[in-house]
Amino acid sequence: MVTQKVEVTNPEGLHTRPANAFVKMVKTFESTITIAKNETEVAGKSLLKIMKLGIVQGDTVTLSCDGSDEDEAMCALVTILQTDGTGS
Asked: What is the count of structural domains for the chain?
């Protein structure tokens, strides 16, 4: 398992478009992925639960990835949180 605290620098935070990109990316990995803000942790595959976290630019979240492709998953997901929300 790998865990990393990430400051969200994406100007949109994790609103609809970037949250959808995040969930789509999560679904490409075999690892179990969770994202947490403060004390609330949710499954990375749940768009609605991620949206309910209310993640905005400047928030620090904790990503956890557990599985055979955990390192690759962590790298890809951090990129989404720190770019325009699409990983580009």
From this structure: 1
